[in-house]
Design brief:
Number of strands of chain A: 28
Distance between the termini of chain A: 19 Å
Helix content of chain A: 40-55%
Number of domains of chain A: 4
Oligomer: heterodimer
Structural class of chain B: alpha+beta
CATH superfamily of one domain in chain B: f41 fragment of flagellin, N-terminal domain
Largest interface: A-B, 83 and 71 residues
Strand content of chain A: 15-25%
Shape of chain B: rod-shaped
Distance between the termini of chain B: 24 Å
Radius of gyration of chain B: 41 Å
Radius of gyration of chain A: 41 Å
Shape of chain A: elongated
Largest sheet of chain B: 5 strands, antiparallel
Number of strands of chain B: 15
Chain lengths: 640, 399
């Protein structure tokens, strides 16, 4: 008889635990990280009678969470990748909308600059058109600076985001460590029963941690979880959480890097181990998109400024003087590694030729006796040099002095160009529209030979004797002499009697200019190359400058200025487009993985509703059994 | 498959968010008229559109350059047109002055008329473009190119030509040097010039002569023709210097008969005196101004007869050359203007092509975009309605 009571009671108990667990599931249906729980029940072993084993009821052996480690790990991984892609995408979109915008990009400003230059070439005498050119040049300068400023703002924002992401990682790591302790003790107390809700909380934290940085999790038998980043660098071990910190990068003072913080002492961390998640996205965006973009923008600005400067120096301004710089000369940025010998100097780097410049940064390292190693960071090409100076990729690197073995420097040829570009003059007469020399034929010449106006030989500086008065005199129809008259009364003979072929003509190069004589001269014909005084109507130099718009002056003569800029637009656009597609795909991937994980661990309210009814009925049935047992007991008691 | 209640909500919200984003993108494409809102929408087309935009802008710039060049060329052409009719007037006056019935005061009247023409010519040669830039001064556009000096008209410009970029591959000179137009005019017949000595007393008038055999010409050589009476008959003799003639050229002088030597020929009409000489020298450059002022001087001189005829002949010859020179320049101007017109229409065609390609690259196809918008709208509405229905389904409603 007692068995009937025990049996019914165990049934009521089991139904009660079932109801409580179902209530718990319903209550936590939308709790993040919650996995549904189930009660484990088993029937009690029956006691032996002559009629066989008679059952004695039911036992609740535990409450377990419905959890699939494989699916959970997959969700973490996919979420990690999704947060990396989404963060990278939203970061790069800032640049994408900036560089290609028809109003805010650099291309309209570059176009305006060359339009105005053409205007000057068409009307060299006109001060208003010169003023308009300076206005457009200033506009182009402002536009380069504005885009660079925006990139700097984004970079500064990134520094803050990296720091706050590191703080979030530290915070989660500490919480995981604390939970590790709690779980360890609860597991020990529970004698094999798992603290389901604590485990859920820890999984949720690890999932959030994975949104910041890619981690690997190892479960230990005592219930604790070890969390590792990169190639096995520990973040959380047992109840210990390592702390990360952002510090100024020793190689590049303009950026921060992430290091271990051991009670105030920092130890370096492989930056490549900081992968995935928001933190990985910030670092990759900064190093792979933002800085190359700024270098590419700087290269266009520097290319335009240096090319125009060079040509302006070959020309003559409205005051009759040789032209100077229209733009400030922009110099490459060189940073010393903070670990260098403090006594060491810094190498000076100058731009040698615009066409050779790349968008890469370079690391220069002094190896002591064996000389220098220059590493191009874009493709990791290392070149060794026994001595400096050397001209590499359009820049000339001079030896730093003094120098200690192991010193290294970061050379960024074009990084600052868009920021530092500026007009060197606001005087419209300083635009060297004319050429400094002109060739003229004497009015008394009776032959048909002609002389070209002449060009000035590049590169600057111009020859000191450029503007000397030079005479080409034909002693007979096929011989000429060239004389520099600036040293009268003793003229300098530049070329003694030289053969002239009327069918071919002659190209004369003296004193830094070049001119052509064509046609048939007669004895006594004289040509002069003189200083181009009063040449208000000469536009030869402006025509040359205007032609730079369509010449391929960048990237070893493969693209024009705008071509180089549209490469930047194309690269940023392609990367953004790729990220737009992959981040969307990854978001869908996460949704699917989460759905799969939820299909195992998520709460289905209909199912819980059914369970409520199930356990309610079970409870009612067990209670009825109890009532029947009581009735039976009463029946016995009523036997008199 | 088991579905968690959260999944039903999450997946519906995610799908509606995505549809809303696409709807927004399509709406922006329609509102802005641009297919590419940022470079990432079509990176290849965006980079290409940048370059096409530049090409289009350069093409527009060339059109502006052509307008500037056409303006300058037209100004020069209209100046030179006036110079042409002026020179023709001077020619007419010079021919009129050769009329034997005129007396010296008649000729002085013509000389006065020519002086006025000379001043007019100076004015035309110093034409400006309306903003104070001289058209015929070479590079020195602010310097007055033609100024009277004690030694005659001086040229203070240079040989510079102002080039204008009128198309990608073509620069056209929009100015001509004043030296080429007004100063470098060959005198005589262009190869040599015949002149009567100022001391001649006879009535011999020399023709301008012509070249019969260019290969036989001796470059730079001068000749003189002298006369002698041999047995009462007038004979002529030609001597060359510094290169003497291979075979002596002598003969009986007959008025109007051709005298030939070293590849050239000329004739003398009238009766020269024995002491008279005629010279043949290589042509040199003579400015139009010098030609006209020489004519004025000859007309102002009191004498008539052979000396006047010789001066007028010489002057007419030089005027012919001057007119030819100006007409040559004008035809070159006309060719350049024609070329600019041809380039203009080619440039307009090119501009149209650029604009079409650009439009294809970056403009919204409204038919496509609006039909897509409708489609997306329907999709979103369906998702919203079905979501509300599914969310309503719950067993809890029945217990």
């Amino acid at each position: 008889m007692a068995d009937l009571f025990t049996s019914a009671l165990s049934g009521m108990n089991a139904a009660q635990v079932g109801l409580a667990t179902t209530e718990h599931n319903i209550a936590n249906a939308s709790t993040p990280g919650f996995t549904r729980q189930e009660i484990l029940i088993s029937s009690r072993a029956g006691h032996q009678t002559g009629a066989g084993f008679i059952g004695e009821g039911v036992d609740v052996t535990g409450v377990k969470r419905i959890y699939d480690d494989f699916l959970n790990t997959q969700v973490h991984q996919e979420q990690n990748r999704a947060s990396y892609l989404n963060t990278y995408h939203s970061a790069i979109r800032q640049i994408d909308s900036l560089v290609a915008d028809p109003a805010a990009g650099a291309s309209p400003a570059m176009q305006g600059f060359f339009d105005a230059l053409n205007g000057v070439a068409s009307n060299p005498e006109s001060l208003p058109s010169r003023q308009a050119f300076l206005g457009n040049a200033q506009f182009a300068v402002n536009r380069f600076q504005a885009i660079d400023q925006r990139l700097t703002d984004i970079a500064n924002g990134l520094t803050n985001q990296i720091a706050s992401s590191v703080n979030v990682v530290n915070s989660y790591a500490r919480q995981v460590a604390t939970l590790n302790g709690n779980i360890k003790r609860a597991t020990a107390l529970g004698q094999g029963q798992q603290p389901n809700d604590l485990l859920d909380q820890r999984d949720l934290l690890i999932s959030k941690l994975n949104q910041e940085i890619k981690t690997t999790v190892l479960q230990n038998s005592d219930g604790t979880a070890g969390v590792y980043i990169g190639n096995g660098q520990a973040l959380v071990i047992d109840e210990q959480a390592m702390q990360l910190l952002t510090v100024q990068s020793p190689g590049d003072p303009s950026k921060v890097e992430v290091v271990y913080n051991n009670n105030g002492k920092t130890s370096a961390l492989q930056q490549s181990s900081l992968q995935g998640g928001n933190l990985g996205a910030y670092l990759d965006f900064r190093d792979q998109t933002l800085e190359p973009s700024r270098n590419a923008l700087g290269r266009v600005a520097l290319g335009m400024a240096a090319s125009i400067n060079q040509q302006n120096q070959l020309g003559q301004d409205l005051n009759g003087a040789l032209g100077g710089n229209l733009f400030n000369a922009v110099s490459p940025r060189v940073d010393r590694n903070t670990n260098n010998d403090p006594a060491s100097g810094v190498p000076s780097v100058t731009i040698a030729n615009v066409a050779g410049l790349t968008t890469s940064d370079y690391q220069l390292k002094f190896n002591g006796g064996t000389g220098y190693t220059l590493l191009r960071l874009s493709d990791n090409t290392a070149t060794s040099y026994a001595t400096l100076p050397q001209t590499v990729d359009g820049m000339t690197i001079n030896a730093p002095a003094p120098i200690t073995a192991g010193d290294s420097f970061l050379i960024r040829p074009t990084a600052n160009a868009a920021r530092d570009i500026a007009l060197a003059t606001n005087d419209p007469t300083k635009i060297a529209v004319a050429a400094p020399i002109r060739g003229t034929a004497a009015l008394t010449n009776s032959g048909t030979a002609k002389i070209s106006s002449g060009t000035v030989n590049a590169p600057p500086p111009t020859n000191a004797n450029l503007k000397n008065n030079v005479t080409v005199a034909f002693v007979d129809a096929t011989h000429y002499t060239v004389t520099d008259n600036s040293t009268l009364p003793a003229p300098t003979v530049l070329a003694p009697s030289t053969l002239y072929d009327p069918n071919v003509g002659a190209t004369l190069t003296f004193n830094g200019w070049t001119t052509q004589i064509t046609g048939t001269p007669v004895a006594g014909d004289v040509f002069n190359i003189t200083s181009n005084t009063n040449a208000t109507g000469d536009n030869r130099n402006a025509l040359l400058m205007a032609s730079f718009q369509t010449q391929n002056l960048m990237a070893n003569g493969t693209v024009s200025f705008l071509g180089a800029y549209s490469q930047l637009v194309g690269e940023v656009g392609a990367k953004t487009s790729e990220l737009s597609v992959t981040s969307q795909a990854q978001t869908n991937m996460v949704a699917q993985t989460v759905a799969a994980q939820q299909s195992v661990s998520g709460v289905n309210l209909d199912e819980e509703a059914a369970n409520l009814i199930r356990y309610q009925k079970a409870y009612q049935a067990a209670a009825k059994a109890m009532q029947i047992a009581q009735t039976m007991f009463d029946a016995i008691m009523n036997i008199k | 498959m088991r579905i968690s209640s959260n999944t039903i909500f999450d997946s519906n919200v995610a799908s509606m968010t995505q549809q809303q984003a696409r709807l927004m993108q399509t709406q922006q494409q329609i509102a802005s008229g641009r297919r590419m809102l940022t470079a990432s929408d079509d990176p290849v087309a965006a980079a290409r559109a940048l370059e096409l935009n530049q090409s289009d802008a350069i093409n527009t710039q060339y059109a502006a350059n052509r307008t500037a060049a056409r303006h300058k060329l037209s100004l020069a052409e209209s100046s030179l047109q006036s110079v042409t009719s002026l020179l023709q007037d001077v020619q007419t006056a010079t021919v009129k002055a050769g009329n034997g019935t005129l007396n010296s005061s008649d000729r002085k009247t013509i000389a006065t008329e020519l002086s006025g023409r000379l001043q007019e010519l100076t004015g035309l040669a110093n034409s400006t473009d309306g903003t104070g830039n001289y058209l015929f001064a070479g590079f020195q556009s602010k310097t007055q190119p033609f100024v009277n000096t004690p030694t005659g008209m001086g040229y203070f410009g240079d040989d510079g030509q102002h080039n204008v970029q009128v198309s990608a591959a073509r620069q056209i000179a929009s100015s001509d040097s004043g030296a080429d137009v007004f100063m470098r005019v060959k005198n005589g017949n262009g190869t040599f010039i015949t002149q009567a000595a100022a001391t001649n007393t006879g009535t011999g008038a020399v023709s301008s002569g012509s070249v019969t055999n260019p290969a036989a010409l001796v470059a730079g050589n001068s000749y003189s023709i002298s006369f002698s009476l041999v047995a009462g008959v007038m004979n002529y003799a030609v001597t060359g210097a510094p290169v003497t003639l291979g075979a002596p050229v002598t003969g009986v002088y007959v008025s109007g008969q051709t005298i030939s030597f070293d590849g050239m020929q000329l004739d003398i009409q009238g009766t020269p005196a024995v002491t008279d000489t005629f010279t043949v020298t290589p042509s040199t450059n003579e400015s139009i101004f010098t030609t006209i002022s020489d004519l004025i001087a000859a007309l102002n001189a009191p004498v008539a007869g052979a000396s006047l005829t010789n001066s007028l002949n010489r002057g007419l010859n030089n005027l012919d050359n001057a007119l030819n020179n100006v007409l040559t320049t004008r035809s070159s101007l006309g060719l350049r203007l024609n070329e600019i017109d041809a380039l203009q229409s080619a440039g307009e065609d090119l501009g149209l092509q650029f604009k079409q390609t650009l439009s294809q690259l970056q403009d919204t196809d409204y038919n496509k975009a609006i039909s897509e918008l409708t489609q997306l709208q329907m999709g979103l509405q369906a998702a919203q309605k079905s979501f509300v229905k599914i969310a309503d389904l719950s067993l809890f409603s029945y217990i």
